[in-house]
Amino acid sequence: MTEAGADRDRGEKTSKSVCVYDCRPDSSAAPERTLDVANIDYNGFLQALRQEFSLSTNETFVISTTDRKEIDEELYKKLVDGQTLQLLKSVNQELPMAIQERIEFLPHYHTLVQCGMYEYYASEGQKALPYAFAELIDNALSATGKNTGIRRIEIRLLFDESQGGPAVVVIDNGCGMTSKQLNNWAVYRLSKFIRENDIEKPDYVRPSPVPRSLNSDISYFGVGGKQAVFYIGQSVRMISKPAGSPDVHEFVMSKDDFERKELKKEDIYSGFIRNRKPGDCSHVNVSNEQFLQSIVIEEDGRESFTAVVITGILPEHVTYLKQYFTLWTRELAHTYHYYIHGADGNDTRIKRKTDHSNIDIQISLFERSTRVPRVVNLREVDNDMQTLYVSSSASTFEFKATGARDCLVEGLIRYHPFLYDQETYPVDPYAASAGPSEDEDEDCVVLNPEGRGKRPIFECFWNGRLIPYTSVSEFEWCKRPKKAGAVPFECYNRISGVLFANDRFQVSTNKLTFMDLELQLRDKETIFTRVNNGQEQRVKIEREFTVWLKECHERFDKQVMFQGFQGVMTREDVPKRLQSPWAQFKAIKWDGKTYKKGQLVKSVKTQPIFFGSIVQFLLHGHVDGDVHATGGHAQIALEPKELYDEQRIIPIFKIDRQATAAAIKEHIDNELTKLPDQLRVIWPEGNAWAEKDARPAGTPMGPIKVEILNKNGESMSRLPVAGNSKKLKVELKVIWHSSKGDVETNTYTGVHSSKWEYWFKTMENLSKLGMYTLHLQTILSDSQSEEWAGKRLPNYTLNFSIKEGEAVSFNLGIVSSPVHVGVPFSIPLDFKDEFEYPTQPPCNIKPQLECSSLNLSYEGIAFGTTSVIKNVRVMGKISRQSKMYTVKVHIPGLKENNQSLQILLQPGPPHTLVVFPDEDVLSVENRTPANLRVEVHDEYQNITTHPKLVVRCQLLGAPDLPADLLDCSNTGSGLMLTKPLLLKTVNTEQILTAKFNIPNHRTVVCVERQLRILPSTQISRLEVYRQEEGSDDVMVLQNSERIDWAAGDTLGNLHFRLYDEGNRLVPLLPKLTSKIKVNWTAKLNAEELSQGKLPQLCVPNQAQREHYYSVSFQDQHLVNMSFFIVPRPDEPDRLRVNLSESSVKMGEILSGNIYVEVIDQYGNKTDCLNAESVKTLSVSADDLDKEALVVEWQAGIGKWSVCRVRFRTGSLGPKELCFKYQDMQQFVRIEVTAGHPAKIILLEKPEIPFQVMNGHGLDTPLVMQLCDKWGNPSPDQRVEIEMKTLYSELKIKSSVTSQPVDSEGKACFILESISGPKGEHHLDFRGRFGRKDIPGPVIKLNVIPDPNKPVELRIEYDGAATLCAGAVFPVFTVVVMPEEGGPVRNICPANLSMLLWKGIASGSCPPATASALKCSKRKDTEKDECFCFRDKLIPELAGKYVVQFVLAFDKTKHLWSKQIELNVVPNKAMKLAPETPPSTPVVSNSNIRANRTLVDSLNLKIMDQYDNAAGEGIDGKVLVTVNGTGDMVIPLFENGEKSLSYSLTNGETLITDLVLLENSPGEDGAEYILQFHPEFQQTSVTITPYSLPFRFCNDAEYQEVIANLSKKKDHLSKTVLMYRDIFETNEQLKSELECQVRDASHKLNELKPELIKSGLDISELTTVSAMKNVINAKKAILIEMANQPRRKCSIPDPFKGSPHVLGKVAHLAEVEDDDAAKVISWHILGDMDCVVTETTSAAKKIYDDTQGRQQVLPLETVFWRPNERQLPHIRNGSSLFRPIGNPVFVKDLLIFPQHVESCNKVFATFLGDTILIDDLDSANHYRRGVVQNKMQCPTLLTRQGERIRSNGKFGGVQNKAPPIEKLRGQVFGAPFPKEYNHTCLQIELLQQYSGAMQKASDVEYEYNNHFKYLQSPQMKQKRQALKQQEEELRELEQTLARTPQKRGKRSLEPETAEPLVPPKRTRRKPCKLDS
């Protein structure tokens, strides 16, 4: 990072300093440095940094805050006094060491303002530790609120003192905290609403409403976290890593530190934040805080996290947390129940529409390292109070309470039914004591006999979490009534409730209590609404609650609960009408006890009393799951099954509930003792075989006697079962377990004998080796079965084995071959018994061995599985190698005692070494071989071989003598010393000793021989000398001698001599001299060599190093002599110049020095220069700054040094630099490049300002060029050019806003989109080189409004129209308005929608349930810009509605209209009816008033046809009468009245206490009609009266029967109506789908001919995927055609698309031919930039916007008359002459993509009748012909670029078009090839066909699925159910229609047999209908 210097701010400023840490990677851990920045600006601050930290100008760095925000000018101004900064290499580098940031955390003023609020935990006698942990969990939930994955929160209780405990750690994987946010956390009372947020993060925004207010927005006041940590412990360490940051921030607060600072009068509320890299635990005291080291190590790899480490835990807290771990974790699970389990809670009985909550809270307790930690996941806690409430509830009542200021409470009431003689309302497990007692089972739920009792109903939750110390007892509408009603009083004690309040309600800062929740809920403005299936219902909440509570009582308060539904069965043991259906269950709960399948029970009141196990429970009726009901049966399997193989079915009440399981089990066990229990086996002859006994093969087994005993030990032979007894037999089997499987060797069946019981004879066939099993099994004599009643009869099993016998013969095993003389080997022996089984030999055997001509011996014999004769040796001389010998073995004492074997015999191991010739001294000449023969013998003088048998010969007696090795492994003999002996110079005889040995066989004795060595006669020395011709002086060259000689000279007259090993001169014979070689030449003269002469030697030209030369004699060995020649420089010849750098920037000094030296002719540096010669050297060049030039003498290297070479002016490029000394001169070339970047210019500068349409971009990119101060392009790629807007409201979308320049110094900016207010704006371009700014151009942009950009939806409709329910809305007309100008027309109607929903306008987005209506088809009479919504039905339900219109641009971008509130009023009053139809009343002639009551309370309203209350303003009365049919006697009301009158007010009346007269007349069982007839003064309104049928009975008993039948009829009527609606809806849907299938097929058939016509093969277009492939291939062809080189017009056209604007002339037409396009464009070049408009006002607007710089042409001011004029040479259809050059009107060559008529007018104005012809000669010929025929000739253009004006003038520059390149894009573009448009047409047809096929496929698929659904078993079952219920309804109606005749005791029920269970209320499964 670099910067230019800047002046200091002269103004006076307050004191301000910053602390800076050097955090670069290579810096050491130095303390922070303080910089005073009070009176310096940003640039001065950077200079101070460089000076303080010794930063060079070229060194890059970054200065940032501890939150890694790079300090720029804006952020520098916001620095505060004492702020900590970091000096980095890059923003994202890792911190090499931790740094400390000093912070202050003074408490916020709210600490005083709100000090009266509840601020402590220890209240209400409860242990507050769980709520302290809850505060920390609140913070973690808020931090993880935006996590997309698992929100993980972990609480670790580290109570292992060996690890540094006790400590509490809370870790979450949330967003983490920056150092600024960590500072905010430390400030007490700094809530989220008043704290300063980071620059990048916005202020607090209230979350959107969610179900149950589970928005995780529960970290609020800036208080709870601090209170919690200091309530738990004495110190807290906050560790956090924010997302996207590489640093971890750590902050510590402790009570001891506060007290220390207070004592020392220090600043208490200050501290340090430690900023470090993840995993850096260097600051951790491992001995005291080992656990903290583990936590820090875990930081690696985490994107973000926060860890709260609390230490100094109070001992009583540690005790509580350990002892009551289960208790307080349950309390946390209760507090966050709905965050953990979701909005529905921990209810496993419902199918969730969404996944479970992603919140995972885990608590771990670590005590000692040796103890397994206790781990609890709050999701797994299943006994917290909310789970108990949810799991024990049977039904829920959901409601909402809405108050002022968006206050919202969602409520839920649960019903806990009475079951099994007990209440199921759960008991609070925390209410009894602070912790569970020692003998209490934590999982036990105690059933409360009193239900809820006096406890409050509602627990209160705030933002989804529990507020523990606030509860609401009840509301007026749900409290227990004072008078008895339809619901028993005890039902009000069976409800529990939950209230979910949003954050509009205030809570205490510790979130333990609500401030005013109950007061606000009891406010009269609070509205309660019922919520049913997610929909709010504005009904009377009290009535709805009472109805619900009554239903719960009737449905769920039961006695017997049937569980484990298994299906439905049919019974045949009952009367036919009761045979089906019977539901099957696994268990029941009855009277507090559970009876399960398989449980043992005893019957009561049965004959006889029996015992058995439960098979299943049966319940008559339609049931498909667990159910509460009365009655039922139990299916019992009699026990013991071994005696009673039978099942019985009894009523459940006949199960003896007093019988204990032990008594039942005892009785069954007593019965079981009568059964056979075991077999007793007896061996009469005393030869008993024991378990796992092993006997030799052939041993006899038996005889065997068997007895069958029962459990009492009594012998038996029959089964003691009821009826005929069964005889028993015993079956014997002997099974041999062979390797191939089990084989039965013996099988016998024994019959009982009174004398011998069961007897089996002796078995003598056990001869096969292996394991055997003797199996005795009791079987039934009649069925041969081994089982009785599912249990196996007694059996006996004996496992034994058969082994081998004594040895009688033997075999010899295989002997390893070959066998060596004297080497021991073994002979295996295999012994066998009489069955040929291998066996052990006798112990005293002594084998005898024999072999001819050889001696044999052995050591002994080893016994085992295979016996072995050990260490057999063979001794003697063998005649030849590998001869076979026979060895005989004799073993006395066996039946077969002789065997023999063959062995292959070879010599033994080496024993002796023999050397030949056998002489003591041998004479050998030096350099010749000795050739000695050696042999290796074994112990018996046999030549032997052996692996690795190597003989070594070592010569002794002289240094460096070689050793010879001979491998005798394969031969046993060979020659040694076969190579010449090469001793160093041997002048006289020498005696050597040759020592022979075998290294690998040390036992073989060494052999020595003496060698006499004689001197060699071969050449051993070569001598080289120099002798001039005719001279006697001889110069002998020594070996490796160094010789100085002039470079390039010749060294001659060299000779040589040869000597032998005895230093005797050897004559130079040609045979010897031919072996002389030299290394300086390959051409040798044989004649001169024979005379002892050597060739001449040329010395090298370069005097740089010494050179090696050698003379050698190569014979059998090499004799060599060498020397070195060092060349020295020659005379001075020229200059040599050395450049260290060959390029220099303009204005800068060339880096490095230029060295000049004098060299000789070969380039060798000479020593002729000195310090005085500097004055004689001259340096010159063009534009060279000679004043700066410096020439110096460098004595150390003997050269001139030239420095400070600089060029100030002139052009860039190579410069010739001339150096001259005496008569020598030298030139060098230096490349001069651009100087330092100094400015930025805009290349290809167009007209300024740029005209750009709002929301559009520039057609051409802006190319910036970086230059030096002389204007030369600078390619410095370190410079970054950035683009900034000088007006904040101007928004520019660009691919880049800053970028470095390229290798040419250019940067290209493409402005994709420019948005902002209308008018002129400025765009500033600046370069940045580190901190240095480089000025650039300021571009002016003129933003004009986009007339096609929709910004507003204008809605027009009849606002005064009355909207009646069920009618049609007035027409809504939508006009899409742009930023400026008239309405937008190019809008697709399908993108416009009308949204309608019930409610009031809120300004927020429409709810998801809003109905979407599509735009209607435009009529011919309607304007193009109007989009109408016609014939839209008004909802049938009256009330407030909202309409909003939306224009969809894409899936994410929409334009919304204002929300329009509509009031839908009821339609015309039609009838008098109740809101909810009552059930059919049934009354009787009874003295009890209740039995005579027709209507207790009935609210009737005047309604329209859609059941909306439509009686507003209608007053009168309602007359109630009783009507009958025929001459029936009419009952009378009380007081003998035939009619009663009730007041009708505002169309509503309340009918109460409508009772018949006691002993009123009436026909028994007859049906009458209660007629409610309204009477009022409005004669124009006709209201249909309401009729209510009722039944009249003479007595109460018959009344009860009729009432039940009426209820059943009402229920069946509703069910039948629902079924009919379902079938009618499905049939309508089927008809609609059939119509859609026909339409889709018709559309496909219409498109097929068009596809064929366009050249497509439809046979391949059979699937949508195939068509997509074809479309993609066609699009690829289009892209390829579009990417082909094509002439394009580059003139920008920002006005195109504006209202009434066609565009610039250059873009209105296209020309196919290049030559024609060039000459036409050049001809009207001045008009190509002209903007053509339709109106003058549009032209004037552009003129004003561009301040008159843009030329315009309004078409309405252009006169144009269409004509079809022919070329001038054609008159009356015939040619006046024959033209040449193909003349054609220019206008006929133009192609108009759009606006054809307007373009014809435009170009007729600009071109007239201009003609294009091939060349100039043809043009002159044409003009001459036209003029000669007395015709006016227009302007002629040629394809070659010439022009002949209409006056005949041509030639000159003015009439010659330049090359097309010089037109710089101001040329008509070329059209796409013809294939392009054809391909576009094909793609359009394919897309239509694909869409039609996809739609046809979808519709057909939907139709088929619907048809299958109609034919499915489910629908068939529904039809059957409808038919059945219609039949039942008809039967009921017929039954009710029958008037009973003489009846004693009335009964309309069908006669049934006496049930098997006590008569109780029959339960019928409610009918469920699928929609």
List strands and helices in order, with pairings.
Blueprint: E1 17-22, E2 33-36, H1 42-53, E3 62-65, H2 73-77, E4 83-88, E5 99-104, H3 110-113, H4 129-143, E6 151-158, E7 167-172, H5 179-186, H6 224-232, E8 235-241, E9 248-254, H7 255-263, E10 270-276, H8 290-297, E11 305-311, H9 315-323, H10 325-335, H11 337-341, E12 359-366, E13 374-377, H12 385-392, E14 395-402, E15 408-415, E16 418-419, E17 422-423, E18 458-462, E19 465-472, E20 495-501, H13 517-521, E21 527-532, E22 535-537, H14 541-556, E23 560-569, E24 582-590, E25 593-596, E26 600-602, E27 611-620, E28 627-629, E29 633-638, E30 647-651, H15 661-672, E31 676-682, E32 693-696, E33 704-710, E34 718-719, E35 726-738, E36 741-750, E37 758-760, E38 770-780, E39 787-788, E40 791-792, E41 795-803, E42 809-812, E43 819-820, E44 825-832, E45 838-839, E46 848-850, E47 855-857, E48 860-862, E49 867-875, E50 883-890, E51 898-906, E52 912-916, E53 921-925, E54 932-937, E55 950-956, E56 963-967, E57 973-976, E58 990-997, E59 1007-1014, E60 1019-1026, E61 1035-1037, E62 1041-1046, E63 1050-1051, E64 1054-1060, H16 1070-1073, ...
Parallel strand pairs: 1-4, 6-12, 18-20, 32-41, 43-51, 53-59, 62-69, 71-77, 79-88, 90-97, 99-105, 107-108, 112-113
Antiparallel strand pairs: 1-2, 3-4, 5-10, 6-7, 7-11, 8-9, 8-11, 9-10, 12-13, 14-15, 14-21, 15-20, 16-17, 18-19, 21-22, 23-24, 23-28, 24-25, 24-27, 26-27, 27-29, 29-30, 31-33, 33-37, 34-35, 35-36, 35-38, 38-41, 39-40, 42-44, 44-45, 44-49, 46-50, 47-49, 48-49, 50-51, 52-54, 54-57, 55-56, 55-58, ...
